[in-house]
Design goal:
The chain has helices spanning 77-96, 124-139, 146-156, 212-222, 226-247, 250-270, 280-296, 321-331, 352-361, and strands spanning 7-14, 16-20, 25-27, 32-33, 37-41, 48-55, 64-67, 70-72, 108-114, 168-172, 183-188, 196-202, 301-304, 311-316, 364-369, 375-377. It has 390 residues and is of the alpha+beta class. Its EC number is 4.1.1.33.
């Protein structure tokens, strides 16, 4: 009698926001980067993807993926690469133990949900592919470490490899043509520097105009600044950032974070035709951070922008009043502040024009902090009947 049992496993995975940016591919097919990068993993209480992976002979024969209740195409090379690699690892285990169920031969059903806007510059693909890979790895009971799985997640979305870890994470670009040494490693766990906080100004929840993949291809092909960034600027910033994290030196961390963001967006501007991920609201956020630091007489807040207009402002818990509190004094009308007990502070030292632009252009705030990597959960998105839970 055929085995019609529904096997399943669920996980949640975090967003990570890079402080040394990944931009450019030396091999688009394998998602091999032209430079290394470093990120901070953010708390899943505020930003996470929840994914259930299931397999059964009773499922339709093709693999399916449901994201935020919408069917997704699973035939793409990136998704198929992840499925293929994970199935290969499972089949190797099955070959060594004939009593194990042959899960690698069964169709997959993946159901995934984000608790934040998708494709709006908030690293949704990173959390999404990290959750997909980790959930299937749990389903297949693979003994692979996060670093080993990062090689697979990288093929789905480059920055996803960093979301397989909590805390502070480096993606080592590697040099091998097969990508076997392009992996994520832990720089420091969240517990090493637990006081790191992040305030996200959500400028637009709309899907961005130029995707990261497309933007990278155009940059590599046309930017004259790109090569210097990859070969000189980023290696210098990588060394400085990893040292700052080890020493919990926020001033150095903040300065490198802002220089990195500026360098990345300068390269985008140098692309032909130019790519504009930042807008006037983004620039106003930069001005506000500069005003906060000027008032403090040192770097206590640091802005960074990924491939989108949303501002991520890092700061330490001890400066919550003079960073988040001051921003709340200017933008206290927005949703999101209720998630934390933060008292609004006088915002008179902030540029009035910048504050006006932020009031008109920011839709909400997200308050979060450094957090842990993927977490296995018993909360399933697929019912016992194999159908998505509504």
């Amino acid at each position: 009698m055929a085995d019609t049992k529904i096997y399943q496993a669920s996980t949640t995975a975090p967003v990570n926001i890079a402080v040394v940016k990944y931009w450019g591919k030396r091999d688009p097919k394998l998602n091999l980067p032209t430079n290394s990068s470093v990120s901070v993993t953010l708390s899943q209480s505020d930003l996470r993807t929840h994914t259930t992976a299931a397999c059964s002979s009773s499922f339709p024969q093709s693999d399916t993926l449901l994201l935020n209740s919408e069917n997704q195409d699973t035939s793409g090379a990136r998704t198929q690469a992840c499925f293929r690699e994970l199935r290969f690892l499972r089949s190797s285990i099955e070959a060594a133990d004939p009593f194990l169920p042959k899960l690698s031969a069964l169709p997959l059903k993946i159901v995934s949900e984000n608790n934040f806007p998708t494709a709006a510059g908030l690293a949704s693909s990173a959390a999404g592919f990290a959750a997909l890979v980790r959930a299937i790895a749990n389903l297949y009971e693979l003994p692979a470490s996060p670093t080993e799985l990062s090689r697979i997640a990288r093929q789905g979305s480059g920055s996803a490899c960093r979301s397989l870890f909590g805390g502070y994470v480096a993606w080592q670009m590697g040099t091998k043509t097969d990508g076997s040494d392009s992996l994520a490693v832990e720089v420091a766990p969240a517990s090493h520097w637990p006081t790191m906080r992040a305030l996200i100004l959500v400028v637009s929840a709309e899907k961005k105009g130029v995707s990261s993949t497309s933007g990278m291809q155009i940059t590599v092909a046309t930017s004259e600044l790109f090569q210097r960034r990859a070969e000189v600027v980023v290696p210098k910033h990588m060394a400085e950032m990893e040292e700052a994290i080890r020493n919990k030196d926020f001033e150095k961390f903040g300065q490198v974070t802002m220089k990195e963001s500026n360098s990345f967006h300068a390269v985008c501007l140098d692309t032909f035709p130019p790519i504009f991920y930042l807008n006037d609201v983004s620039k106003a956020a930069i001005r506000v951070v500069e005003d906060i630091n000027k008032k403090a007489g040192k770097t206590i807040a640091a802005y960074t922008f990924d491939a989108g207009p949303n501002a991520v402002i890092y700061y330490e818990e001890e400066n919550i009043a003079v960073v988040a509190g001051v921003v709340k004094g200017a933008l206290g009308h927005l949703d999101g502040w209720e998630s934390r007990d933060i008292s609004a502070q006088e915002a008179g030292d902030l540029d009035s024009r910048a504050v006006s632009v932020l009031k008109d252009g920011v839709s909400r705030v997200i308050l979060t902090q450094v957090g842990e990597g993927p977490v296995k959960t018993e909360e399933s998105l697929i019912g016992a009947d194999g159908e998505p839970i509504k």
